Amino acid sequence: MSSATLPDPGAYGRNWASVYDDLFDHRDDTAAVVRLVTSLAPHGPILELGVGSGRLAIPLAASGREVTGVDASREMLDRLREKPGGSAVTVVEGDMTSVALDERFACALIAFSTLFLLPSQEAQIQCLRNAAAHLTPGGVLLVEAFVPDHQRWTRGQNVSITTMSESTVELQVGLHDAADQVIRTQQLSFGPDGLTLRPNTLRYVWPSELDVMCLLAGLRRVGRWSDWNRSPFTATSTAHVSAYS
């Protein structure tokens, strides 16, 4: 699938950039991310595909590493550049399925289920192949993602309240297509300024499916954990960090 046939890759950033940091800036212990990356790839430059506003890239750069971040959203990259330490990250506006960089990297990251923003298995494999093509010999790809949980859904639907105050209510509503492994959501914000809609679509991947997709990209799994702290991955894990080389 060519990038021309994909949905607009910059749409997520346009919809979410204005609230992304408020929602997710403290999601992870970034020191643990730096430790894991350093242990698996102690030397050499780092590439983050889907870098967003630099939540992980900036701490990695602050640790002394050369970091390049790719994102299709100009809005996200503008926020990265504005942050303290953002100037230490080399930013490239581009589609992570097809971007071509001259440099090769000791480690590539696709974090926070960003791979799932690509709408098909074919596009996801294309992204993994592109990541593999940008690795040095022996380089490591790290993919962080949630583990699908079908118990969240009732007749393929889910509604939850994420925020409620005297002046504001935020709801997240979703539809789940188990056959195509697609989740479509809307975050609805009701407040003094009216209604705001922020859509998102994810084509999720099971961990074992990701292993096969990486094999097609020429990579084999060398590690899997429940989080960046290397907690064991078990049958009850809700997320995983998987390493491929």
Main sheet makeup: 7 strands, mixed
How much helicity do the residues have?
Answer: 25-40%
**What is the CATH homology-level superfamily of the largest domain?**
Vaccinia Virus protein VP39
How many domains, as an integer?
2
Q: Uncertain regions: pLDDT < 50 for 5+ in a row?
A: 1-6
Number of helices: 6
Tell me the strand order in the biggest sheet: 3-2-1-4-5-11-10
State the end-to-end CA separation: 24 Å
Structural class: alpha/beta
What would the average pLDDT be, to the nearest integer?
91
N-to-C SSE string, H for helix and E for strand: HHEHEHEEHEEEEEHEE
- List how many beta strands DSSP finds: 11
CATH topological fold name of the largest domain? Rossmann fold
| Relative strand content | 25-35%
- Cα shape: globular
